[in-house]
Amino acid sequence: MVTGSLDKTIKMWDMRQATPAKTFNCPERVYALDLLMPIMVAVTADKKLLGYRMDNDPSEWKVFESQLKQQLRCVSIFKNKAGTEPSGFAVGSIEGRVAIHNFQPDKPVDNFTFKCHRGPSNTNSRDAQEIYPVNDIAFHPNHTGLLATTGSDGKYTFWDKDNRTKIHGAQNMNTNNDPKKSISCCSIDHEGKIFAYSVGYDWHRGHESNDPNTKPQIVLRNVVDEFKPKSK
């Protein structure tokens, strides 16, 4: 097991032991990490993306510069098109945006960003948008170019990063714009059939919006028909 912490460390654990098997000291607080052997990527409070090689003797590998300007919130590693090894990762931020990073891009434009989890603002301006944090990202286990994003707007959306398109429109679990119904995290089962996500307050609006009487939920959804590449 691997854990990342606000104490600026990443620790590897053998569940049979009370002390960590290995500790990595990070330059800043660890906000999120993902591991897909043999690569681990962690995001820190200073918007750094720390890469590690976990095969043989785990060690620091590479530091990636973020394409995003605001605080990073989540990270998810994706496989190459053959599905044989990690080839890059996606990272989401509080600015309603996701960045795609390839470990070895064929050309610079292979690394790009896209907007998500945004909606009309309550202000009178026609052009104003309400921007929500991207809370989690999950990649399809079989169609390696497909990913899901979830946000503080209470919505999830499915995307095709290779074709740079949305494959399924945002599903709103929060029609009343209730901050207590954000989608804080998600996961996809190993067959790519079940999409699981949690609904509850994610603290993006501070303590004053918290209602202890509102209980969190875990939702399981069959996505066989909607979470697949579009026919050409």
UniProtKB/TrEMBL annotation:
<dbReference type="InterPro" id="IPR036322">
    <property type="entry name" value="WD40_repeat_dom_sf"/>
</dbReference>
<feature type="repeat" description="WD">
    <location>
        <begin position="1"/>
        <end position="23"/>
    </location>
</feature>
<dbReference type="GO" id="GO:0000922">
    <property type="term" value="C:spindle pole"/>
</dbReference>
<dbReference type="InterPro" id="IPR019775">
    <property type="entry name" value="WD40_repeat_CS"/>
</dbReference>
<dbReference type="InterPro" id="IPR001680">
    <property type="entry name" value="WD40_rpt"/>
</dbReference>
<comment type="similarity">
    <text>Belongs to the WD repeat rae1 family.</text>
</comment>
<dbReference type="Pfam" id="PF00400">
    <property type="entry name" value="WD40"/>
</dbReference>
<keyword id="KW-0677">Repeat</keyword>
<protein>
    <recommendedName>
        <fullName>Rae1 protein homolog</fullName>
    </recommendedName>
</protein>
<dbReference type="InterPro" id="IPR015943">
    <property type="entry name" value="WD40/YVTN_repeat-like_dom_sf"/>
</dbReference>
<keyword id="KW-0853">WD repeat</keyword>
